[in-house]
Write a structure and sequence with these properties.
globular; eight-stranded mixed sheet; three-stranded mixed sheet; 11 helices; Rossmann fold; 336 residues; alpha/beta
């Protein structure tokens, strides 16, 4: 029995079949996966040791992140999208980006919602000084806890609406995307505007993306719009990495009773109907709302909370799906 036969916890396929690189010497094992997995070290170490039936061996598992590096500067581009607004997409995008950074990746976050940018508020930088122009004449991204961020909320007055037609908004997204000095990234998380309009089509058709994460809530109206988003991405040949079900349940703080304000089982039904995996579920929780209002994301407010652990699971699973899809998307290209 060899480590190459070990089943990946997210993809349910053997490491060897996925192309994982494994080097071992004595009790030391260097594992090179196609996704960042710093937070899995202890559990993987125990599971691999049990798999090898080597209880007498004190396994020392280490990760090599070189497999994340791509030939292009922006790494794998992951689109976080929703069919409708108000489902928590931006909050989830921010926390996925932070979670991947905590897992050991170099990550950028682009707020592509020109009309309603929210990352400046979510990351506590609303009203901060405008980004500077670097030596290469590119716009320097705003740094937040090691995350490289760019949003229209950093470039405009928060009280001034963007009264632009679709082509102007699409052009603005392209400029922000291409003129930001991102540096070399492992992942660029794009917080997409809700719906299936001009900006969504522009990014989907002109950016070589690794895949899309669809955010929904359990109720029927949100699921219907999520289906439309999935179909749109499929039409433009963007892989669907999976679904995140937000506000899936509410747990009473006093008695622990679970209730389902927005129905239940919606993501599972969508999974069966559309043949896409459920990456994870997040509850309707007061701490999430407080983190948004305070500009301190859950991953920063309390990295060890149940909510933060769920975000990290979703982030790892999303990145693992990028690996599984074997999409070679290191370089963003803009069509002429």
């Amino acid at each position: 029995m060899i480590i190459e036969n070990f089943i990946d916890p997210y993809l349910r396929k053997e490491f060897g079949a996925l192309g994982a690189k494994i080097l071992s010497s004595g009790n030391q094992v260097m594992l090179s996966l196609g996704y960042p997995a710093r937070g899995l070290r202890d559990s993987l170490q125990a599971d691999i040791q049990e798999f090898l039936n080597a209880s007498e061996l004190s396994l020392d598992l280490r990760f090599d992140s070189s497999s994340l590096k791509k030939s292009g500067p922006l790494g794998s581009v992951i689109l976080v999208a929703s069919g409708k607004g108000g489902v928590g997409k931006s909050t989830i995008a921010a926390n996925i980006a932070l979670a991947l950074k905590e897992e050991g990746a170099v990550v950028g976050l682009l707020d592509a919602d020109i009309y309603g940018p929210s990352q400046g508020i979510l990351l506590g930088r609303s009203g901060s000084p405008k980004p500077l122009v670097g030596r290469d004449k590119g716009i320097e991204p705003v740094l937040f806890e090691g995350l490289r961020v760019m949003s229209m909320s950093y470039l405009s007055n928060a009280a001034t609406p963007m009264v632009w037609r679709g082509p102007m908004a699409s052009s603005a997204v392209q400029q922000i995307l291409t003129q930001t000095s991102w540096g070399r990234l492992d992942y660029l998380i794009v917080d997409m505007p809700p719906g299936t309009g001009d900006i969504q089509l522009t990014i989907s058709q002109q950016v070589q993306s690794a895949g899309a994460v669809i955010v929904t809530t359990p109720q029927d109206i949100a699921l219907l719009d999520a289906k439309k988003a999935i179909e749109m991405f499929r039409k433009v040949s963007v892989p669907i990495l999976g679904i995140v079900e937000n506000m899936s349940e509410h747990v009473c703080e006093k008695c622990g009773h679970k209730s389902y304000p927005f129905s239940s089982g919606g993501a599972s039904r969508l999974q069966e109907e559309m043949s896409v995996p459920v990456l994870g579920a997040l509850p309707l929780d007061l701490s999430i709302r407080e983190s948004v209002d305070n500009g301190i994301p859950s991953l920063v407010a309390d990295a060890e909370s149940d909510i933060s652990k769920r975000y990290r699971e979703i982030a790892r699973y999303s990145a693992a799906r990028v690996w599984e899809e074997k999409v070679d998307s290191p370089l963003i290209t803009i069509d002429d």
